[in-house]
Amino acid sequence: MLDYTFxxxxxxxxxLILMRVATFTAVAPxxxxxxxxxxxxxxxxxxxxxxxxxxxxxxxxxxxDTVIGYAVIxxxxxxxxxxxxxxxxxxxxxxxxxxxxxxMQVGLSMVSLFDPVSRNQVTVSGSLYQYTLLAMxxxxxxxxxxxxxxxxxxxxxxxxxxxxxxxMLLQQIMTYFRNYIIIGFRICxxxxxxxxxxxxxxxxxxxxxxQMNMFAVGMQIKILTGMAILYMTSxxxxxxxxxxxxxxxxxLKGFTGAMMP
Length: 261
Prior knowledge:
- With 261 residues, this protein is mainly alpha-helical.
- It is 72% helix and 3% strand.
- It has one domain.
- The chain has helices at residues 8-27, 39-54, 67-89, 93-106, 124-140, 142-156, 166-187, 189-208, 214-232, 237-257, and strands at residues 112-115, 120-123.
């Protein structure tokens, strides 16, 4: 016979699950996009996922005496959700860095667009890479891995069982910033190499034919060549996205290991 009783202690436990899931979905890619979807949908989605996880999450007795003790547990669950969401979100910023490098080499660094999702000014190539990565997340089903990561976190990091090791978290972040430049440079490497060769050729022509206005000619050549290279190398964005997705999985595992009891 099914037991439908729901005590006050069960409500407290459910709210802790909701805190971790809600903070994770507010920061994680795809789910944490500003304005899309609306905030009310994010809250409804977080509540729905928490209801599904409530029956599967291992029940661990909560030990606290006062309201302050319960508030500390809530803050721990919020921190776990934020760190896990941050681990998945910061990896996607590599595309913006690669786009900035491309626009700097092509000559479009002074052109910026308003991104309605992040509500910031972004470059043309950075916006292109960002939305391409987002589309590949949806097509490849990576959002299911992100959801499974927050679901599995309750097994590896029980409720009120998080032990935040700042040293390991700092090490993971430093490793990310070390690979941040390497991965972003690999994405924009074709455009960087071609534009570098064009700059060398224009520099030689400026010495050979000083009467020519190389600034006016060079800007047009670099823009047209850069757009052509972006089009021809668009097929490699799938491999770059796979590399970013694998690194995202490594970051989630590293952040989870840094908070395991």
